[in-house]
Structures are given as C-alpha cells and as structure tokens.
What does this fold into?
Amino acid sequence: MSVIKFTSTDSSFDSYPTPLEKQLSGPVTQYIANHYSDPTNQFHVGFWGSEVGSWRVSYSEHEYCQLLEGRVELEDDQGNKTPILAGEHFVIPAGFSGIWHSLTPCKKLYVIYEATPPTTAETT
It folds into this structure.
C-alpha cells in the first residue's frame, strides 16, 4: 500500500444531474472526484461540488466535510438551518434528513464512512 496524495486542482471531476425527484430548485449539476475507496466500499475520500440550487438529502453515511469554495446551508426536517461558509469544517451524521441549499457554486472535500456497505442493488 502507498500513501495517496491529491488536490482539487488536479482532479478530474465527473458531472451528474441531481435526480428530478429530489430537486427543489434547479436543475442542479453536481460534480464528484472520488480519490479513494477502501476495499469494503465503506470509506471514501474526494471532492464534490455543485451549482446553485436546493435538493432533498437523506444520509445513511457519516460525512466529514470542509467547504473549500462557496456558501451552503443545511436545513433539517424540523426547519433548523445551518449556514456554512468556505473554510468551515462540518460533519453530517448518518440519519440526517433535510435540504441541501447551495447558495453559490461550491466545492467541498469529503470523507465518508458508511457503517453498512451498499448492496449491489443500491449501487446500480
């Protein structure tokens, strides 16, 4: 095994549309550059970004993030809002459900831990 180094500037991002059933405003294109997944498919590290918009989220995984660019707001199902600015660090715990608001184009570093790896049906 070797140490894996990466930066957001030398990353190749794949783009994908936010699923229509989750979109609240948009359409929103999201971008991802996953740099590492462990052999169990439970631990992932990379970069993610999006255009401006809002969509429903539901987390089965624990996710640590550092917002590198932009401004976002996370709103839980009870209407509590957490504003996040570039440079700030945050954790979204498994079980969080609510709305992700990208108030400006944004980019984040993510570290994800999924306690139970997804089944084949969930990844296809």
Remarks:
- DSSP finds one helix and eleven strands in the chain.
- The two ends are 28 Å apart (CA to CA).
